[in-house]
From TrEMBL:
GO terms for biological process: chromatin organization; DNA repair; regulation of DNA-templated transcription. PROSITE patterns: YEATS. GO terms for cellular component: cytoplasm; Swr1 complex. The gene is YAF9. Component of the SWR1 chromatin-remodeling complex and of the NuA4 histone acetyltransferase complex. InterPro entries: YEAST_sf, YEATS, YEATS_dom. It comes from Pholiota conissans. Keywords: Activator, Chromatin regulator, Coiled coil, Cytoplasm, DNA damage, DNA repair, Nucleus, Transcription, Transcription regulation. This is Protein AF-9 homolog. The keyword Mitochondrion does not apply.
Length: 255
């Protein structure tokens, strides 16, 4: 067997990425010219590297991920023509128009060198800003148009355990762009001031090392909670098994 197809045991290597969408309100002229006049927003759903270019208004996307991602498939609502859309080259994104929010299934297929299975997850398409209650608020279209784009992005990491030697070499040849230690750009104003849609606009969100640390801490807390819950039910199961054993002995003694 070629050394390139031998797994490097005990090695884990990860790649940070973001997935999500941005949405803007269509102008009256765009709606009138559209083949779907009931559509109110133009949105883009994407899978990108976590780091952003310093002078760009785009969230993420500093790195080309095609060295380890072969295809990204976006499964849209069934009301769209050809709802399963394959994107086979960067940027791994899809732009459409619509009027409603829905769940988008995202499937990432890795390059053949990885030997890894595809992964799937979901993103809730977001067209409207969130309020402090955690619910979306739908402002009038003219107000939303002045407010600027709505952003909904999630940070995550793809971890490759025991990668093949050739794939490990490929990954190490393409280190991810480091994220800034602190944010360089203001958060969108509708996140900073969720109770008002009439204040001045803010900037573009940006993922940074502080946010990455916070996300890792939340994941660790969730892991601990799952372990604690497993231990709790394991203890309950042991007690139930002991009780069952005791009852069986009592029944056997009475026979």
């Amino acid at each position: 067997m070629s050394n390139e197809r031998v797994r490097v045991r005990g090695v884990s290597i990860y790649r940070p990425f973001i997935y999500g969408n941005t949405a803007t309100v269509l102008t009256p002229k765009e709606r009138d010219a559209s083949q779907a006049p009931d559509h109110t927003h133009r949105w883009t759903v994407a899978v990108r590297s976590a780091a952003s270019l310093p002078d760009s208004d785009q969230v993420g996307g500093a790195d080309d991920l095609s060295y380890f991602i072969k295809r990204v498939t976006f499964k849209l609502h069934d009301t769209y023509a050809n709802p399963s859309r394959n994107v086979d080259k960067p940027p791994f994104e899809l732009t459409e128009t619509g009027w409603g929010e829905f769940e988008i299934q995202i499937r990432i297929t890795f390059v053949p060198e990885s030997g890894e299975k595809a992964i799937s997850f979901y993103h809730h398409l977001k067209l409207h800003p969130w309020t402090e209650s955690g619910e979306p608020e739908i402002p009038p279209l003219d107000v939303a148009m002045k407010a600027g784009p709505v952003h909904a992005w999630q940070y995550d990491e793809i971890v490759f355990h025991d990668p093949y030697q050739n794939f490990l070499t490929l990954l190490t040849q393409h280190p991810p762009t480091p994220m800034p230690k602190t944010k360089r750009k203001p958060v969108p104003y509708h996140l900073a001031n969720p109770a008002s849609f009439t204040t001045s606009k803010g900037g573009v969100p940006e993922f940074n090392q502080e946010m990455e640390k916070e996300e890792l801490e939340r994941l660790e807390e969730a892991r601990k909670s799952v372990i604690a819950e497993q231990d709790k039910w394991r203890a309950i199961l042991i007690e139930k098994e002991k009780e069952l054993e005791r009852l069986l002995k009592e029944v056997g003694g009475q026979a």
